[in-house]
């Protein structure tokens, strides 16, 4: 406890330094009770994480007991998937499975210099605690007071603690709820507290995420504000305001922005009553303010948000005793139809503020209302936070404090309504006969073309509750599996043949690991190529619908269906070189036997956060090349290797030996990048830029061997070494090592040789292509050669920027006449006017040269 | 009837078994699942690591055993604390203050580690009022509390009389 106090005291010196936007659900310290309120937050130091990637480990000893039919490899697979659910566009941080570990958490804290997340199984969890995540920081953070030092308290390591006996609460790893709980815990491990919008970081009372859609815009905003990127800030906007409660500044008042299509992002007020909701995708919003849900007698229904603390570790108590209100003038309204609308634009704060002057409550509150309904032919499958398909007509059942005045009697005057232009018709509000505490309302869904979350408003007199994602209306039914049988594809590879219902666009999971390929056959069944697994492994098969539903949601009452892999031989591996030097980066070759390495699906870890796989190339099912980076402070000795592909986890084999570093040690640092683009790929004939340790500070005499050919190395004024890539090297990984005049040689590292970069041929307006000037919101067309091959290039795989501002690519098509791809996008509003603004296109690490574009300031009348 | 069972099962699954960090515990749950319930004062604390987690161990002077009998003093572990150069944060863990009287719902693991069940759910401040009644309220929370009728509890915590708790413990948790 002393540490917190010291943390706060020392952090007090940071008040003037803090530059982070305020008001969110992170772990927050405020440095004085009277303001100014500049938060010091707990988060990972991206500079301490190679590539901004936080590794996560899973305790090798696993749980002591698992549910029948479950197994450790399945658990690893599910946890891997849950951790990686946070790897989305927006935040600057990413997670990466780094293997199994036998190192105790506290030993890892002391022995490993690189921050990480550890998932452990511990029988010490008392009743009432299912899982807990404990971020650790330094006791002494006095260095934070240094000028230009970090303005946050760094997470040294986060510990996600799960129960060791998973049978005690029937926690099967294949259950959807186990997965969403792990996603939730990873959010805590990354620095997020609970939110109140129904996303992954909401408590289970209102959480409505699924295995198919594990995080929401609110979760992304929360993480992106902690680990910001310029792209995210440029693409999203802000609503700000101030809240008073009974005339006093409102603290920890939850303020939620609700977009017309059901998207929600929330924030919290500071002790001075100010708030900002950052990270809002553009659109039309209404805003509501509400108290964080209370702790209720005989239960823990609270939002479980740890309030900000001051220097003495005293909480800034949340404001309470007021009713929820939609923003409308200062007093607000209980009627969403009267709420003020806020037009959010990318990169901007709305000109009008959403201020609230909330008054003390005069009646009992409503809160934590939750809805569910029944599916199945006999309406006997209850589903919480349901996804309603087209033309669904049935009772929606709700419960929550405040909706009943007496047993079987709804609170007089209770009104329920779907907020906005929601695709649902509601009627016949009533209590549920013989089911005390439950109410009914008949819902009929309307057709939608994409999943549309619906927020519900409940009003009783002066009291209002908003359920932010009460249910979702979707274009399709839940996917279901009726049978899984082993088969073979046209090439004779073992596949799973899956029969079921509503299989269009579904993804297939085998114990949480996604099928390598799914084909819908003419008879309507799916042919799924399963991910690698051990001989005769039995995997639970589940479906993820394209609209966020899962087969588990409507089939959890049934025994899971399995796919059993064919018999196969054992697997193992060997290393090209069993040793690596601390403080160096080095290429490591892993040769498997009986393995099935798959690009993008295989993870290699060394049981220590100080040994990171920076880049990896799967050269075949039994061959991996990797650049491995070892922290100078890494513990010397054997580092156990974990190689995980799908459900195949190989841990037994030769360990990597970490050796002591010599005084004159020379090393290149991965990644080696393209000198022209800064990206991790360079075409043949291009120039690579290399950084390293122990490299010469003067020009001349240094030779690099690149792909077997010797090249002169030059040193720029920036200290970066450069060398040209031979013209005749083929695309793929190529090794480079450095020879110094003094005789030292750097360990070999790999870099990526790309195919030649695509070429932008032209950029024009789709309408009036001859126009020399374009304006924001014009639809533009790029003609590109060398982009790829084939018809189907995913727009998401291509990045277009105008003056550095990321554009949203809408379509890519092949133009046979032009013998080029046509890439179309709408020029973002956040591009400032100017002449000859650079337009670039990038796919992977291949970046075009820029073409100039003239963007006018004010569109002429009539254009 | 079947529908009712399914419904109850579903909601139990939603709010308990699969919830989040915390499993919702009613007072009856806490009475049943605790291995001991004590009224006690904190006399000291120190930090130790156990299975990789830093725990703050609070030494309690036991004033009354409400459930099971413990010795006159007991060490209770609360996750989080300071150990060497590392401070570990345990959200939701109660902070017990020296000299303050508590009623604690305790649970001892098979390995012998005694903790408060449900983190702060099982920790109550004990205050004796001017009329002699001892009132228990949940401590170490910054959150507002309501009673079962949705009325705000002025104590800003879950409140009940110690005598009421004694009765409920004797009845095995039921009212």
Describe this structure in words.
The complex is a heterodimer of chains A (863) and B (175). By secondary structure, chain A is mainly beta. Chain A has 7 helices and 65 strands. Chain A has a 5-stranded mixed beta sheet with strand order 4-3-5-8-6, with helices on both faces. In chain A, strands 11, 12, 14, 16 and 17 form a 5-stranded antiparallel beta sheet that branches. In chain A, strands 20-19-22-27-26 form a 5-stranded antiparallel beta sheet. Chain B has helices at 2-17, 27-33, 162-170; strands spanning 36-50, 53-67, 73-79, 81-83, 86-88, 101-108, 114-116, 123-128, 134-138, 145-146, 159-161. Chain B is globular, with a radius of gyration of 17 Å. The two termini of chain B are 26 Å apart. Helices cover 18% and strands 40% of the residues of chain B. The longest helix of chain B is centred in the N-terminal third of the chain and has 16 residues, at 2-17. Chain B is of the alpha+beta class and 175 residues long. In chain B, the strands form 2 sheets. In chain B, strands 1, 2, 3, 6, 7, 8, 9 and 11 form an 8-stranded antiparallel beta sheet that branches. In chain B, strands 4-5 form a two-stranded antiparallel ribbon. In chain B, a hairpin with a 5-residue loop joins β2 (53-67) and β3. The model of chain B is unreliable at 1-21 and 139-157 (pLDDT under 50). Classes of the chains: A mainly beta (863), B alpha+beta (175). At the A-B interface, α1, α3, β5, β6 and α4 of A face α1, α2, β1, β2 and β4 of B.
């Amino acid at each position: 406890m002393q540490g917190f106090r010291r943390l706060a005291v020392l952090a007090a010196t940071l008040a003037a330094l803090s530059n982070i936007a305020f008001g969110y659900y992170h772990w927050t310290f405020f440095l004085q009770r009277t303001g100014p309120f500049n938060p010091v937050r707990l988060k990972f130091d991206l500079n301490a994480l190679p590539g901004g990637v936080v590794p996560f480990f899973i305790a090798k000893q696993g749980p002591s007991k698992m549910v029948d039919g479950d197994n450790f490899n399945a658990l690893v697979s599910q946890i891997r998937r849950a951790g990686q659910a946070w790897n989305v566009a927006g935040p600057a941080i990413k997670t990466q499975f780094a293997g199994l570990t036998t190192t105790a958490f506290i030993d890892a804290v002391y022995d490993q210099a690189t921050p990480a997340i550890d998932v452990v199984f511990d029988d010490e969890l008392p009743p009432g605690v299912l899982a807990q995540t404990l971020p650790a920081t330094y006791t002494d953070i006095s260095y934070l007071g240094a000028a230009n030092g970090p303005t946050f308290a760094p997470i040294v390591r986060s510990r996600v603690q799960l129960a060791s006996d998973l049978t005690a609460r029937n926690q099967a790893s294949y259950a959807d709820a186990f997965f969403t709980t792990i996603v939730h815990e990873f959010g805590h491990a990354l620095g997020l507290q609970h939110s109140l919008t129904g996303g992954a970081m909401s408590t289970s009372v209102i959480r409505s995420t699924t295995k198919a859609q594990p995080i929401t815009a609110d979760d992304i905003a929360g993480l992106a504000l902690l680990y910001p990127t310029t792209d995210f800030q440029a693409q999203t906007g802000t609503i700000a305001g101030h809240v008073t409660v009974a005339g006093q500044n409102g603290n920890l008042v939850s303020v939620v922005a609700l977009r017309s299509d059901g998207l929600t992002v929330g924030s919290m007020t500071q002790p001075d009553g100010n708030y900002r909701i950052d990270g809002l995708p553009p659109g039309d919003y209404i805003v509501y303010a509400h108290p964080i849900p209370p702790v209720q007698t005989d239960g823990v229904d609270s939002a479980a948000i740890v309030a900000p603390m001051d220097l003495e570790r005293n909480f800034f108590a949340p404001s309470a005793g007021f009713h929820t209100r939609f923003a409308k003038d200062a007093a607000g309204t209980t009627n969403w139809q009267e709420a003020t609308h806020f037009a959010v634009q990318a990169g901007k704060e709305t000109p009008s503020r959403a201020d609230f002057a909330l008054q003390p409550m005069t009646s009992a509150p409503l809160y934590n209302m939750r809805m569910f309904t029944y599916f199945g032919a006999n309406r006997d499958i209850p589903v919480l936070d349901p996804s309603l398909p087209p033309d669904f007509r049935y009772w929606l059942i709700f419960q929550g404090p405040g909706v009943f005045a007496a047993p079987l009697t709804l609170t007089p005057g209770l009104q329920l309504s779907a907020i906005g232009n929601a695709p649902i018709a509601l009627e016949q509000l009533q209590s549920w006969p013989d089911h005390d505490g439950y109410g009914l309302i008949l819902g009929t869904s309307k057709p939608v073309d994409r999943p549309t979350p619906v927020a519900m408003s409940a009003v009783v007199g002066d009291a209002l509750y908003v359920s932010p994602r009460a249910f979702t209306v979707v274009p399709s039914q839940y996917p279901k599996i009726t049978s899984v049988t082993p088969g073979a594809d046209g090439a004779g590879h073992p596949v799973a043949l899956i029969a079921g219902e509503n299989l269009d666009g579904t993804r297939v999971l085998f114990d949480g690991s996604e099928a390598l390929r799914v084909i819908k056959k003419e008879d309507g069944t799916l042919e799924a190529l399963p991910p690698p697994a051990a001989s005769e492994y039995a995997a639970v098969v589940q479906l993820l619908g394209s609209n966020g539903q899962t087969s588990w949601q409507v089939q959890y009452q049934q025994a899971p269906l399995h796919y059993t892999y064919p018999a196969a031989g054992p697997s193992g591996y060997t290393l090209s070189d069993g040793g690596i030097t601390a403080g160096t980066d080095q290429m490591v070759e892993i040769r498997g036997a009986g393995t099935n390495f798959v690009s993008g699906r295989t993870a290699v870890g060394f049981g220590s956060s100080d040994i990171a796989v920076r880049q990896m190339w799967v050269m075949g099912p039994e061959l991996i090349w990797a650049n491995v980076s070892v922290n100078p402070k890494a513990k010397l000795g054997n580092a156990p290797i974990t190689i995980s592909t799908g459900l195949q986890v190989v841990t037994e084999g030769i360990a990597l030996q970490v050796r002591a570093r010599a005084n004159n040690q020379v090393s290149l640092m991965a990644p080696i990048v393209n000198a022209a683009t800064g990206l991790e790929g360079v075409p043949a004939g291009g120039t690579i830029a290399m950084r390293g340790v122990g490299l010469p500070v003067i020009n001349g005499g240094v030779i690099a061997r690149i792909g077997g050919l010797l090249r002169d190395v030059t040193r720029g004024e920036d200290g970066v070494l450069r060398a040209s890539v031979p013209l005749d090297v083929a695309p793929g990984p190529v090794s480079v090592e450095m020879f110094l005049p003094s005789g030292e040689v750097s360990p070999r590292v790999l870099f990526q040789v790309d195919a030649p970069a695509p070429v932008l041929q032209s950029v024009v307006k789709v309408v009036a292509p001859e126009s020399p000037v374009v304006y924001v919101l014009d639809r533009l067309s790029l003609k590109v050669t060398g982009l790829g091959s084939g018809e189907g290039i995913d727009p998401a795989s291509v990045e277009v920027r105008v003056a550095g501002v990321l554009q949203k690519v809408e379509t890519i098509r092949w133009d046979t006449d032009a013998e080029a791809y046509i890439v179309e996008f709408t020029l973002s509003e956040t591009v400032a006017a100017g002449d000859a603004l650079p337009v670039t296109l990038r796919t992977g690490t291949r970046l075009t040269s820029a073409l100039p574009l003239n963007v006018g300031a004010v569109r002429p009348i009539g254009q | 009837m079947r529908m009712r069972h399914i419904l109850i099962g579903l909601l139990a699954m939603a709010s308990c078994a699969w919830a989040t960090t915390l499993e919702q515990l009613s007072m009856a749950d806490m009475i049943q699942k605790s291995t001991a319930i004590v009224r006690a004062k904190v006399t000291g604390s120190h930090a130790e690591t156990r299975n990789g987690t830093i725990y703050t161990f609070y030494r309690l002077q036991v004033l009354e055993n409400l459930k099971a009998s413990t010795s006159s003093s007991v060490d209770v572990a609360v996750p989080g604390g300071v150990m060497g150069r590392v401070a570990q944060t345990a959200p939701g863990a109660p902070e017990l203050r020296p000299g303050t009287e508590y009623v604690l719902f305790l649970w001892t693991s098979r390995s012998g580690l005694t903790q408060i069940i449900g983190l702060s759910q099982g920790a109550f401040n004990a205050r004796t009022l001017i009329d002699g009644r001892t009132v228990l309220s949940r401590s170490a929370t910054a959150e507002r509390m309501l009673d079962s009728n949705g009325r705000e509890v002025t104590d800003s915590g879950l409140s009940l009389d110690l005598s009421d708790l004694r009765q409920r413990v004797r009845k095995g948790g039921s009212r």
